[in-house]
Specification:
- It is a single chain.
- By secondary structure, the protein is of the alpha/beta class.
- The protein has helices spanning 2-24, 41-56, 70-80, 94-103, 129-143, 158-174, 195-207, 221-230, 258-271, 302-317; strands at residues 27-31, 61-64, 85-89, 108-112, 122-127, 148-155, 179-186, 212-216, 234-239, 250-256, 277-281, 288-290.
- It has a 6-stranded parallel β-sheet with strand order 2-1-3-4-5-11, sandwiched between helices. Strands 7-6-8-9-10-12 form a 6-stranded mixed β-sheet, with helices on both faces.
- 51% of the residues are buried.
Length: 334
């Protein structure tokens, strides 16, 4: 009887300790410019946060940045409210999270699209966007009837150049003669949220012969997809699966699994298994890929799927190494 009572008490104590730990756990996320429902990068993070909340019942404190000055202020406010882990979304939050993490060594921090900081309480997620872009580049070149495809980027930074370069490499692996048009929306954060400009750039590329246009432009990409659809051409989505935005006119979407990064951050912090350092996710880590569903199934031929799948296998094994623009600020396919 004494042994049974001891076991019951131990189990009860463990349960109470778990409840107390959960009660002490206060997660927070800071979305970047464009808002959590941008149907792209931020929304991918939101999907990971929602999955975490749906599974655990734990609400995550949220803030949506609308101007640059708010980033650090929002993080500091979350810490003041008792946050035990803070997730920053996007490279533009790097300086802010570095400063706040240094000032609050007892709080865990995580950031997406950053790999150069050095704080002992910070986890960083980087992605091999060039690999996923290579795959959709193959799709674009094989789907094109004109031999000209396009790319519209958001803010002109090395990260977006890496998307463009991977896309060019993939397209030219499928058709060495394909012409790739490229435009960036701007040089400030406003470039992420300008659908009208995205539509204008897309129409310009269509006027020059492009019949497939890949966008890596955040909220601006909504304009790219709409303009392509209005012209009866094909668009390629990014980050989240955007095939549903214009069924029949979105060839595919390059998936960047920021939802996984968000979910992992919260789950690991809650379970006490939060480790720091850099996690670099590509095809081999299932961090990037491409979308095939009921909205684009009729657009992807068997030959296209076979070519994309074969390239993914070779990238995973290392037989194909997709050049990363960020490594030397150049693109061999450009």
């Amino acid at each position: 009887m004494k042994k049974i009572l001891t076991t019951v008490l131990a189990a009860s104590f463990a349960t109470m300790s778990g409840i107390a730990l959960a009660a002490d756990f206060k997660p927070a996320v800071i979305y970047d410019m464009g808002g959590k429902f941008d149907e792209s990068f931020n929304e991918g993070v939101y999907n990971g946060i929602k999955r975490f909340t749906d599974e655990t019942g734990v609400e995550v404190m949220e803030f949506e940045v609308t101007n640059e000055a708010q980033r650090q202020q929002a993080m500091e406010r979350m810490v003041q409210r008792g946050a035990t882990v803070v997730l920053g979304v996007g490279f533009a939050q790097a300086d802010a999270i570095n400063a706040v993490a240094e000032a609050n060594p007892d709080v865990n921090f995580s950031i997406i699209d950053v790999n150069w900081l050095d704080q002992p309480n910070l986890r960083q997620y980087a992605f091999k966007e060039q690999e996923g872009s290579y795959l959709v580049g193959i799709a674009a070149a094989m789907a094109s009837e004109t031999g000209t495809v396009g790319f519209v980027g958001g803010m002109d930074i090395p990260l977006i150049r890496a998307f463009a370069c991977g896309y060019q490499q993939g397209a030219k692996s499928a058709n060495a003669d394909v012409k790739v048009l490229e435009n960036m929306t701007g040089t400030t954060p406003a470039a992420w949220n300008d659908p009208a400009k995205g539509a204008e750039l897309t129409q310009s590329q269509i006027d020059r012969g492009a019949d497939v246009v890949y966008q890596a432009a955040g909220g601006t990409g909504v304009g790219v997809i709409q303009a392509a659809a209005d012209a009866g051409k094909l668009a390629i989505g990014v980050d989240s699966n955007q095939n549903h935005m214009a069924p029949g006119n979105v060839l595919t979407s390059m998936l960047k699994r920021v939802d996984v990064a968000a979910y992992e951050t919260m789950k690991d912090a809650m379970s006490g298994e939060f480790d720091t350092g850099v996690r670099n996710l590509g095809i081999a880590e299932d961090g990037v890929g491409w979308a095939l569903d009921e909205h684009n199934a009729d657009l992807i031929t068997d030959d296209m799927k076979a070519a994309i799948d074969a390239a993914a296998v070779k990238i995973r094994s290392g037989e194909i190494v997709v050049h990363d623009y960020r490594s030397d600020s150049s693109c061999p396919a450009g």
